[in-house]
Amino acid sequence: MITSAPHAHSGLTTGTVMQRVLVAALPGIAAMVWYFGPGTLIQIALAGSAAFAAEAMVLRLRGRPPGPTLADGSALVTGVLIGIALPPLAPWWLAIAGSAFAILVAKHPYGGLGYNLFNPAMAAYAALLVSFPDAMSQWPGPRPLLSDGTLPGLVDSLQRIFTGQHAAPDGFTMATPLDLFRHNSGLMVQQFQTAHPLFARGDLAGVGWETVNLGFLAGGVYLLARRVITWHAPVAMLAALVLMALLCNDGGSSASRGPPSLHLFSGATMLGAFFIVTDPVTTAASNRGRLLCGLLTGVLVFAIRAWGGYSDGVAFAVLLMNLAAPLIDRITVPRAYGHGRARQHHGAPPE
Amino acid sequence: MSPARTFPGGILLPAHKHASSATPIRTPALPPELFLSLGDATPLVAVGDPVLKGQLLAAAGSDGLPVHAPTSGHVARIEFAPRAEVPGHRAVLIPDGAERWCERTPVNPATRTLPELLAAVRAAGIVGLGGGGFPTDIKLAPTHPIDTLVINGMECEPYITADDRLMREEAGAIVAGMRLAARLLGDPARILVGIEDDKPEAAAAMTAALAVADDPREIVIVVLPSRYPAGGERQLIQLLTGRQVPSGGLPRDVGVVCFNVGTLYALHRALALDEPLLSRIVTIAGGACREPANYRALLGTPVAHLLAASSYQPARCEQLLLGGPMMGIPLDDVQAPVTKTTHCILAATAAELPPARQPQPCIRCGLCADVCPASLLPQQLLRHAVARDHRQLERHHLLDCIDCGACAYVCPSAIPLVDHYRAAKAEVRALRAERGAADQARRRFEAHQARVARQSGERSARHAGLIGTSADHDAPASAPVDAAPVATDLLEQALARAGAATPRRAPLERALSAAENRIAQLETQLAALDATATEAQRNGLRARLEQARLDGDLARQRLLALPAEPSPTPDGNPQ
Amino acid sequence: MGSAEFLTQLPAALATLATLAVLAAAVFGRATHADRDIDIDIDIGIQGLQTAERELAAQIEDLLPQTQCGQCGHPGCRPYARAVAAGEPFNKCPPGGHATIAAIADLLGTPPLALDPEHGREGPKLVAYIREAECIGCTKCLPACPVDAILGAPRQMHTVIAAECTGCDLCVEPCPVDCIEMIPAPVRSALMARDQRPPVAA
Q1: What ipTM describes this predicted complex?
Q2: Which of A147, A253, A346, B91 has the lowest tally of Cβ within 10 angstroms?
Q3: Looking at beta carbons, which residues of chain A come within 8 Å of C14?
Q4: Does domain C124-187 sit in CATH 2.60.40.1840?
């Protein structure tokens, strides 16, 4: 075999990159388990193994060697993200259907890893949300707001997920902070926050939801530190979200779309900013392009939350920007060395 | 001077330099044979001739580089070397061990004029020793005003320490060469010496050498952080001056000329001591050598000779490279000779350079774009290179890639990116050449049409003025019936000219068979014409057929008449 | 309530509009410089159809091999390009072959056609070569060459400047002694590089 330069390699593999993403998701997952019960872990296990199995099956069907592609863990990451996004006590087939959709419809028809147009996890989430809106909105209330023992344990969760008992009659499901703001019935923001237990303890974005978002933010910082992602897309998305919230902030009237802090630390904001918008396959290639992509995602997330039909808009915003990414790539080719505006002519005075 | 400037991207690499930088430069024993590539240079010696050290063996060919004898001895053979880097002829010189010099006439360079100095540089065969191999005399005669001379002492690739050792041991000569280069370049206002911070001894030696003689110019040694590829010419210029060499241009376009320290050393030896370039410093490194070191190797020394001097263990060697681990090329023949651009031989073990992993799909992680020193988007280039989308490749500035390999080094999918870009670059260049040739053809066609139009205009003007006098002479040759006598006349003259000395059979036979071929062709064409053909087409073909028959008859007659004198006039009557 | 509602929505509406405007400006502002495909459409809208056709002809001409051989039945590549722009079939250029046909089809947005065999067949690129020993110096090939790539004078041996020869073979016919032949053009090294591409991962 003819070897070619460079002969040295950093030793970094795709598997390492995916491992780091999984590690970075841990704090957020831990917060979810603490506040919303161990159901999330079951969903992650279900979705992860379903994604893994679907990937293996498709690779076999396509006649590709499954070993290296499965080992890199990209399917696992997709599954884990789906598991995180699902309500903790959603029925078992929801996770499996989502993972199957992600791998079989959103990923491989486009050519598999590296070629998919849409983020598979978000495509699956959107498909589930549209198809099973009821099951997808059954979020339990955060642990501190429930009377002791209401939050199901591991065994109870397993039972609920697999036996198909719907969680609703037990009275522990609760509207998410974003839901509450959508259906705010004529209260000023301040009244609202004092009235509802989710905000009662001075939480800006809802008990539990805040911590979960902080967890994913911590994971994002880890990813930034390990240079798995660049700051451009997340910072642009968060900045756009804050900017839109500020622009639309009317001092807390009853028609308010919610203060910036709510948008920043509620819903899937941090998960989206650091784990979804940064998905390199489906976002723009250049840093400038990523800034633009992140910015527009932030605008869309707010627009969907404020004026759209769903309480959270991360998945739809990401999918819309996935569509725009190739176009953004075309208009954001970076200035290469030797093409600079700053080109100095010979004889320029030395600085 | 603040070294605050930077270049985008770059990577930190394990240096692996201490093994070979610790020992002083060694002078190896004379090898049994030296192999000197001649290219298209004109040999001035014959096989068996005794030669002296420094003697001119071959006058410069198209590359402008003469070949000198690196040591005294005799020319054993001149042979074809098909496996050489550039296949061609080479001279094999057997040293006699005496190292007898040819006559040298050192003249103080300060007393010589610039053209004399340039001629001396050219005669010494000096090229850029950093790896570029560009003739130094061309760089020293710049067409633009130069305000900055950049000296490259970076040596950013791992393992290589040739420039490091040279700066430590010969800083005085390097500084002397630097002054000569500055003088030839019209005394640029400042001289910037870039040295990486992992070579403090070299920087100290250079500082000391500069302190010896004071200079009114601004000469600054800038110690720069080690970051690959900071030693790339364009990156170093950006680091030191903040200027970017324009795409497709040369450093002189921004008032800069850049020299490697080894080149300056050679320049000093050539101008002060009248020594042509006969040797260079070569690093022998890697875990498969028990004693990594630098060697002052005569040009033409087989690599195997230097490897042996460093206790090379072939069994442990996984990859033998000509050059460093980032840009080196695999060396499959250990008998390959040291050339002017050989700066390192790396005999790496499997632990040092593990074999490449199987490439995985690109996940567009963008690490490659983060490290690209030319601010390209390697992941997009890969996509377009695989799709052969040449327009997009040009939009993404493929040709500004410098092959540094930083992208492939960090790629988690182990994609051989540089290979893809090299293949794509060759395609883009070929397409550009094709496009350029088509444009050229169009321009020439337009010029041709313009000229034809002008001439026909002139001709009709002349006709109008001089009816009858020159009409016969200027009859347009396009009418086939008119052309016949002219052609016969030409053929006549040609035959007369050929036959005047010695009547030859072969040309006549060829003319005859050619005419017969044409007759056959034209007859079939005529027969193939259907009812839709115009009368003009038919007449044209008939006229050409007539002409072909005339030519054939003429040739036949000539052939028959060959033993005797050629007949003065052709019969001109077919059948 | 009405005015309060309006006030709260106004900034958001403005921001969304501004974003869309920036995006549109970025896309179309760049495109007019960088992207000729979009250019054509814009030009047709703004300027007259005649100008558009002339521009189209220029773009088609850019895609032609500039052999100037006349095999298409037109005296040169530009007249052929004009004819194609005016609606003539674009499958009459054997030197350009399928690649040129595909490029023109791409430009016109129509499916590609098969090369019309009436105008010749696609073959390797050729250059004219004069067997110099046989050349009689008649100069008849000189005016035939559309790009003036033949060097010669009366009664002097002629030669083809290979680098300038387009391979049109118009010089072969006028030669009275048939000493001009068409030989394959030297292969470019880059074409070899195509076969040395590294494997692409799945």
Answers
A1: 0.84
A2: A147
A3: 247
A4: no
